[in-house]
Amino acid sequence: MRAVQIDNYGGPEVLRFREIATPLPGPGEIRIRLAASGINFMDIHTRTGKYATSANYTTTLPLTLGIEGAGTVDMVGRGVNDWREGDRAAYCIVRGSYADYAVVPVTRAVPVPDGLSDRLAAASLFQGLTAHYLAHDVGQLAKGKTCIVHAGSGGIAQLLIQLAKRAGARVLATASSAVKEQVARRAGADRTCTYDIETFGAAARDMTDGLGVDVVFDSVGPATLDGSIAALRRCGLLVLFGSNSGPTPHVRPMQLADAGSLYFTRPRLAHYIADVATLRRRADDIFASLLSGALRLDIERVYAFENVAEAHAALEERRSIGKSVLGISASA
To answer: CA nearest 205: which of 262, 161, 148, 251?
Structure first.
């Protein structure tokens, strides 16, 4: 089968297109003939070696990139009873989706409902699950709450804004350009502004009568972190779920105390989909909401298999807005 692999860490130039053996599913696994793969910052971080020394990710080289895909089950492993050949499936947080086939533990796979395309399933699962747990479990957003969503034009952010509005919260979204602010407003943000710390800090105080917001969802990291802390109300919550502007800085406990007895968390999706029931509950809600129109996800671009390097460069250089996918089969 075709696969996109890396032998060493670096820029898009380290990507290698290869023919490798088609994997076989083991006990408790299914094999999916992939139609589409989501393209995510995790793929960039894997390629550049950010996870090379992480205890949470296996990075034995060479490896096949991609952590999210959708397609059709074509083989089931021993002991698998709730999946059949021909079932439509999607998954995330399992490496190897930049390929024609992927072997996936059944604990990471979810059914794709009729009416939802493989492209949309592949584009929405990782980011949709992330936005879902951030809004409902971590942020506990509800009517009357206020929040900041940084990088408001990003794929996760657009879904998070929509879920926040659905819960009744008011949203201030930041972005790096007027075009990206417009994307965040189209997602439902009540107010938008630039990343400049003074600008979004003033906007947060203005929309909360000087109190500060209840929650800040920060995927940017060093460039916004101090401003995020300053924008929170007393006993507010800072949720750092990414660090796209560089290595995550240290947050000092007394810094949180002095800013108003703030709460700080650095969550991971894997801990919020640790059991199959929770994974499927979240996925069912995201997929059903997309089908009903309650959530909208616009796929910016579908890249051909051989154009993965172009897709990585566009994402890494912040030229892409929203979500792009890799079209693996002609039907995707």
So the answer is: 148
In words, the CATH class of domain 2-126+273-327 is: alpha beta
At 113, the amino acid letter reads: P
Q: CA-CA distance, 80 to 98, in Å (whole number)? A: 24
The whole-angstrom separation of Cα 6 and Cα 332 is: 24
Structure tokens at 239: 């949720």
Measured between alpha carbons, how far is 17 from 98 in angstroms, rounded to an integer?
10
Task: For residue range 15-46, list pLDDT tens digits in order.
Answer: 999 999 999 999 999 999 999 999 999 999 99
Q: Strand 29-38 to strand 263-265: parallel, antiparallel, or no bridges (unpaired)?
A: unpaired
d(CA 179, CA 64): 34
Hey, is 187 helix, strand or coil? helix
Q: For 232-268, give the secondary structure using H, E and C.
A: EEEEEEEEECCCCCCCCCCCCHHHHHHCCCCEEECCC
Can 2-126+273-327 and 143-266 be said to share one CATH topology? no
d(CA 65, CA 147): 34
3-state secondary structure of 43: helix
pTM of the model: 0.94
143-266, superfamily in CATH?
NAD(P)-binding Rossmann-like Domain (3.40.50.720)
Lowest mean pLDDT among 183-187, 201-205, 209-213, 218-222: 218-222
Rounded Cα–Cα distance for residues 260 and 210 (Å) = 14
| Domain ranges within the chain, ordered by starting residue | 2-126+273-327, 143-266
Overall average pLDDT of the 256-260 stretch: 96
**Run of H or E residues at 184:** helix 178-187
Tokens linked to 212 = 């500060």
Contact 15, 63 (CB under 8 A): no
